[in-house]
Amino acid sequence: HGNRVVTDTSVGTAIQYDSAGGAYSVYTVDIDNSANSAASYLKFWNVSSGATLGTTDPVLILFAPAGSREPYAFPAGIAFSTAISYAFVTTAGTAGTTAPTNAVSITITAG
User: Fold this and answer.
1) 95: left (phi > 0), else alpha (psi -120 to 50), else beta?
2) 3-state DSSP call for residue 60?
3) pLDDT tens-place string over residues 57-105
């Protein structure tokens, strides 16, 4: 079903469900956390609904250092067999639920 680029300029703690419109593999993620003085984490779930931030284990967590942009590349792709869903928080692991102070932008390339 071709490549898909997902751009979100205001990622926060509200889980964005099925951002690519179905099952895809993630090949790149670019996180712009330059507006924040604290490190943050982009959490991913392989669900189209029903995840609970702070309770449901993410399938992938990406670190974004404070005040910077962080690119990630996955040449073999990370498969999301149901849907690509995500949220952004300031604490690593499953339990984090606090949003960054300022807006965070991401761009995901999926195929």
Assistant:
1) alpha
2) strand
3) 999 999 999 999 999 999 999 999 999 999 999 999 999 999 999 989 9
